[in-house]
Amino acid sequence: MSPQAATAQPTKILFAPRQDPVITDIAKSLTPPGFELVMADFGTPEFINAAAEAEYFMGLARNMGGEFFRSAPKLKLVQLLSAGYDRVDVESARKAKVPVANNGGANAIAVSEHTILLMLAVLKQLVRFHQDVVAGRWRPPASSEAPVLELSGRTVGVVGLGNIGKKVARRARG
Description:
Blueprint: H1 3-6, E1 11-16, H2 21-30, E2 35-39, H3 45-53, E3 56-59, H4 66-71, E4 77-80, H5 90-95, E5 100-101, H6 108-123, H7 126-134, H8 163-173
Parallel strand pairs: 1-2, 1-3, 3-4, 4-5
């Protein structure tokens, strides 16, 4: 074994912000040999120290601008866990010659289903009826101002037909 190999430091991956222990355990189990996963929260001394040595960043962006890229001179890639990259100053990344990859579509199904859930909650007046039940008014009077409303046969408007919008439209169509 050469002296260089004996003293080789693992390649550092900065993972921020800290995540739920389940996610942390999964990330650690997927970290290949020769790499070290450093978990840190943005702005902490641990984050600042890790950024100086990290070759890779993985996580969610929090105002990643010129200061971040200058503090991470070894950085080779920013891999976001989100579809959005609006919190990354792409021009600063470009100047630092650091590619930024997002995770487009990763949550599209969950978000589209949640959108349908919220549409139904509004249509069915979920919050109002929940508050009534909690207050002990579980049955509205027969002449209620709150008729039973159904989504069936209605037109649903979807603003934007990107990845999520298309999935919402498909689900609304039935």
